[in-house]
Design brief:
With 266 residues, the chain is of the alpha/beta class. Helix content is 35%, strand content 20%. It is globular and about 55 Å long. The structure holds S-adenosylmethionine (SAM). S-adenosylmethionine binds next to loops.
């Protein structure tokens, strides 16, 4: 194990889960000026990596996080997956099933928003650790407010530059976010990098279904809103190219669920 990034005597000032998350960091943090005032660790300060398109700006607005879990996310799920697609509860069951979280596991929820999935993972991991990372301060304010579990640490950081050492997590989830992230393929590579040998990944993103030719729908929708539409095979190929095995894809409406596993170390 690498040296702790924060002097052990300062750990007592922090929520225990944030202190545990520190020990997974790949680079030391400054010993002064670490901002945990709002209940999450803020690694971004004045930086905002989320992009300038309307859908991206909504995620960092003050208003959307307040209605996100109750109204926006269920409605968005229906629009993406259709009326016959999974509802909120079924989607949560799918995430848990794809990740096969066991007690004691370390779980990363990338672009965790208001922690709506992180809290499920916290129950499944019991005495393990769940880290939710997101770039939106207003989403994380809601996440902190709504999460009583002591085994969850929230971090404000960029999905494209995860602060963790290689192989830190047994399971990594990224739901409803790759299509909003400015550099999704960089985030995907980071997700695979921080996954431990034998670890599982679960993704929910958008999927091209026609009738427009591949690429055309994305050019229009992304240009107008900032939401990216992935080609049907694009994310599957990226996961396989990054070395994952048992990659599975389920397409539902305009959405796709993907799961995969990092091979055990040779
Ligand atoms: C639609 S929410 C998804 C929340 C949750 N995972 C869910 O399934 O409901 C998308 C999230 O992606 C976050 N996000 C966008 N770009 C990001 C980036 N570069 N790094 C970290 N989070 C990012 C936004 O702040 C937002 O909270």
């Amino acid at each position: 194990m690498a040296d702790p990034v924060l002097a052990p005597e300062r750990h007592r000032d922090l929520a225990p889960a944030i202190a545990q998350a520190f020990d997974l960091f790949s680079a030391p943090l400054p010993s002064e000026g670490i901002d945990v005032e709002r209940g999450y660790l803020d690694l971004l300060g004045g930086q905002d990596p989320t992009g300038t398109h309307p859908a991206q700006r909504l995620m960092v607005s003050r208003a959307l996080p307040l209605i996100y879990q109750r109204f926006w996310r269920p409605l968005g799920g229906r629009l993406l997956m259709g009326l016959t697609g999974p509802g909120t509860a079924a989607e949560h069951r799918m995430a848990l099933s794809m990740l096969s979280i066991e007690p004691g596991d370390r779980v990363l929820d990338v672009a965790c928003g208001p922690g709506n999935f992180s809290r499920d993972f916290a129950c499944a991991a019991s005495d393990g650790l769940v880290v939710g990372i997101d770039a939106s301060a207003s989403m994380l304010d809601v996440a902190v407010r709504d999460t009583p579990s002591e085994n969850v640490a929230y971090i404000r950081g960029d999905a494209g530059a995860l602060p963790f050492r290689d192989g830190s997590f047994d399971a990594v989830c990224c739901f409803a976010a790759l299509y909003l992230i400015e550099e999704p393929m960089r985030a995907l590579a980071e997700i695979v990098r921080v996954l431990a040998p034998g670890g599982r990944v679960a993704l929910l993103s958008s999927c091209e279904r026609g009738p427009l030719p591949a690429g055309a729908a994305n050019a229009i929708v992304h240009g107008l809103s900032g939401v990216r539409i992935f080609d049907r095979d694009e994310l599957v190929r990226a996961l396989i190219d990054d070395g994952l095995v048992e990659v599975q894809q389920q397409v539902m409406g305009l959405a796709q669920f993907l799961s995969g596993r990092k091979p055990e170390a040779a």
